[in-house]
Amino acid sequence: MLVLLIACANVANLLVRAAAREGEFAVKTALGAQRSRLAAGVLTEAGLLAVVGGTVGALFAWLELGGLIALPIAAVPRIETATIDVRVLLFILVSLSLPRWLPVWSPCSR
Prior knowledge:
This protein has four helices and no strands. It has two domains: about 1-35; about 35-100. Helix 1 (about 1-30) packs parallel to helix 4 (about 100-110). By secondary structure, the chain is an all-alpha fold. The model has no long low-confidence stretch (mean pLDDT about 80). The radius of gyration is 19 Å and the shape is elongated.
């Protein structure tokens, strides 16, 4: 239940930030910025944040997995065969990038 509450709070935070950035994009568009340049800027920002955040998260996961495997835990079956899945890392990269596009979709569709 706590995880669901945290997820809802994160989604609400993303929507509030998207609404705040929508005003920023409206001002930039009014000053003559092209929508393609706004989208390129957001894509660059989202990509950089996703790569850095994903890399730091993967590093922590790799370190934690090594620590868990080293511990003598009998309650977890087959812990010694646990690995980090590349498909999960790619999913995380995409899920970190997509919310950054929310503010761009709205002005670009007008």
